[in-house]
Amino acid sequence: TDILAAFRVTPQPGVPPEEAGAAVAAESSTGTWTTVWTDGLTSLDRYKGRCYNIEPVPGEEDQYIAYVAYPLDLFEEGSVTNMFTSIVGNVFGFKALRALRLEDLRIPIAYVKTFQGPPHGIQVERDKLNKYGRPLLGCTIKPKLGLSAKNYGRAVYECLR
């Protein structure tokens, strides 16, 4: 009934791993790692993420896997953007951590079913592009600034070819 995330956590020196895991859960759910006066205006228990386990990464010094459970009430139904913004949006710049990486995400089927999905299938996309028998890929042109129109067009052409 919860979304389960596994984060690889490297705490700052002097920060216990349990504190780092709890801080990740708080920062990525109710929005802060400390108590603020507005906490009393809502039921935080209903929305807060919980770090339910933390394990050392074998062979890696000062690295841990923090397992965090997020209640579905925290997320807007049908919104992948809302889910990822909540879980990974602000937490990666968190000062209590030297490094943080989302390693795994388990999403309950009940929540997955709220996503509408694309309005049509892959065959329609292949027909529009007249591309069959290979993966369909997209790209971001770099550099994003400074290319002439001609060179930008050339880069787009090479990407879509």
From TrEMBL:
Keywords for the protein's UniProt record, in alphabetical order: Calvin cycle, Carbon dioxide fixation, Chloroplast, Disulfide bond, Lyase, Magnesium, Metal-binding, Monooxygenase, Oxidoreductase, Photorespiration, Photosynthesis, Plastid
- Is Disulfide bond tagged as a keyword? yes
* A Pfam entry, by short name: RuBisCO_large_N
* A molecular function (GO) term: ribulose-bisphosphate carboxylase activity
Q: Which cofactors does this protein require?
A: Mg(2+)
Mention any one GO cellular component term assigned to this protein in its UniProt record: chloroplast
Check the record and name the SUPFAM superfamilies matching this protein: RuBisCo, C-terminal domain, RuBisCO, large subunit, small (N-terminal) domain
Cofactor annotation comment: Binds 1 Mg(2+) ion per subunit.
Concerning its family, UniProt says:
Belongs to the RuBisCO large chain family. Type I subfamily.
Q: What is this protein called?
A: Ribulose bisphosphate carboxylase large chain
Q: Which organism is it from?
A: Paederia yunnanensis
Protein encoded by which gene: rbcL
